[in-house]
Design the sequence.
């Protein structure tokens, strides 16, 4: 998967189209990423008690994972943030390096 934890991405389709956020968690087996502030859903949690005796539960708003094909990596070009695809190249030692296709820079 070409998107990693900590990358700045932009949603390119869906209800949150145009929103940008940082990748919190990447799920490569499911081809999904969790982006902060994107795809917020409400979960109803069952009421219970904590060890101190306070009540918990109610409606909680959290982020849900989005498919990696619905986000694009964001890089800086001439002071502007632009979306780009990701490619790879190998350096002299044989290490694999991610490259922004639009700018040609290493990520």
Sequence:
């Amino acid at each position: 998967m070409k998107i990693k934890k900590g990358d700045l991405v932009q949603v390119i389709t869906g209800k949150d189209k145009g929103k940008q956020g940082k990748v919190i968690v990447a799920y490569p087996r499911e081809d999904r990423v969790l982006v902060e502030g994107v795809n917020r859903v409400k979960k109803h949690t069952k009421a219970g008690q904590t060890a101190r005796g306070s009540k918990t539960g109610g409606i909680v708003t959290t982020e849900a994972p989005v498919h990696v094909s619905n986000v694009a990596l964001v890089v800086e070009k001439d002071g502007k943030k632009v979306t780009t695809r990701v490619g790879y190249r190998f350096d002299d030692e044989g290490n694999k390096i991610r490259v922004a296709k639009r700018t040609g820079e290493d990520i």
In short: The mean pLDDT is 93. The chain has no helices and ten strands. The beta strands are 8-11, 20-27, 32-35, 40-49, 55-63, 66-67, 71-77, 80-84, 86-90, 96-100. The CA atoms of residues 34 and 65 lie 4 Å apart.
